[in-house]
């Protein structure tokens, strides 16, 4: 009997919770509030302001109403409210009801939204800049690699040879240091041609040789075993 009563009460509580619904909290606020130097208390106050507006249709809840829902003192609510206004996070606007003509006030979070958008755009630009820098470095490394090969071959590389080097880097994912080590090995063997270098790289890959030092150790063991 008691179990049925408990289940009934839980069910009623869940139904009431569903009827209350949820509050839309911008994900950017949760993502960037630390970057804006907002404290958890300030974020919670902003969420309550959103809740009053969305669920209670109150554009300007009193400080007492906000404090009643929080675990901070009235003085703290006043302090953080003034701080957010000073920091340009929160504004208070005057508004006039078009029907009654009565004047009232409302909290305005547009400045906060603009700051959050700026943070989001900065992240995108930073990501693009990092990608461009990375691609630039890779392009420079590849160009330097071409120059080394041309010096060892004592001639300009053909388009097919340039494509082969690019394939080693982009498709086979060989490190530049490993490609240079294979070139050095080919020069040492007196077989300076791309087919031989490709065989060296393939052999190293099969034997889990991924760095120049590993290639050096492997070659020394190979020569010692002959």
TrEMBL record:
Residues 146-218 form the DnaB/C C-terminal domain. It comes from Chengkuizengella marina. This is DnaD domain protein. NCBIfam families: DnaD_dom (TIGR01446). InterPro entries: DnaB/C_C, DnaD, DnaD-like_sf, DnaD_N, WH-like_DNA-bd_sf. Residues 25-120 form the DnaD N-terminal domain. PANTHER family: DNA REPLICATION PROTEIN DNAD, PHAGE REPLICATION PROTEIN-RELATED. It comes from the Bacteria. Belongs to the DnaB/DnaD family.
């Amino acid at each position: 009997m008691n179990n049925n009563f408990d289940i009934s009460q839980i069910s009623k509580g869940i139904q009431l919770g569903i009827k209350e619904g949820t509050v839309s909290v911008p994900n950017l606020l949760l993502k960037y509030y630390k970057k804006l130097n907002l404290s958890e208390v300030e974020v919670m106050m902003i969420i309550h302001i959103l809740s009053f507006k969305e669920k209670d249709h109150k554009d300007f809840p009193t400080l007492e109403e906000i404090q009643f829902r929080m675990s901070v003192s009235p003085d703290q609510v006043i302090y953080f409210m003034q701080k957010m206004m000073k920091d340009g996070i929160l504004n208070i606007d005057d508004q006039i009801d078009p029907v009654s003509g009565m004047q009232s006030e409302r909290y305005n979070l547009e400045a906060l939204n603009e700051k959050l958008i700026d943070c989001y755009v900065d992240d995108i630009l930073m990501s693009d800049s990092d990608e461009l820098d990375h691609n630039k470095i890779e392009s420079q490394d590849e160009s330097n690699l071409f120059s080394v090969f041309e010096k060892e071959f004592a001639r300009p590389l053909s388009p097919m040879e340039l494509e082969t080097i690019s394939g080693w880097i982009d498709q086979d994912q060989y490190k530049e240091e490993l490609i240079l080590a294979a070139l050095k090995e080919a020069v040492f063997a007196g077989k300076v041609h791309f087919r031989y270098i490709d065989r060296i790289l393939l052999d190293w890959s099969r034997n889990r040789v991924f760095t120049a030092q590993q290639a050096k150790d492997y070659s020394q063991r190979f020569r010692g075993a002959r």
